[in-house]
Design a protein that fits this description.
Length: 78
């Protein structure tokens, strides 16, 4: 199975699975894999070891009434 990790990824699915399976305290696991305790807690809460999408679920774009008028105008030169 090929996985695509970004340049700064500190964990792989294999490491994440080991983190989830470990009964050691978060501090010990974090030191073992060179990650933060917060990362250990994050992966322990998740059901999967796969990355989630980084795409926003709801886009934060709105137009002002003036922008809407320009966009709706048929006279706008492209």
């Amino acid at each position: 199975m090929l996985i695509s990790l970004h340049k700064q990824a500190t964990t792989t699915p294999q490491i994440r699975a080991a983190v989830q399976a470990s009964d050691e305290p978060a501090r010990v696991v974090a030191e073992c894999y060179g990650i933060s305790e917060q990362t250990v807690w994050k992966w322990r809460k998740r059901d999967s070891v796969q990355d989630r999408s980084h795409t926003a679920h709801r886009l934060q774009t709105t137009r002002t009434p003036a922008q809407e008028a320009v966009a709706a105008s048929p006279d706008v030169a492209a």
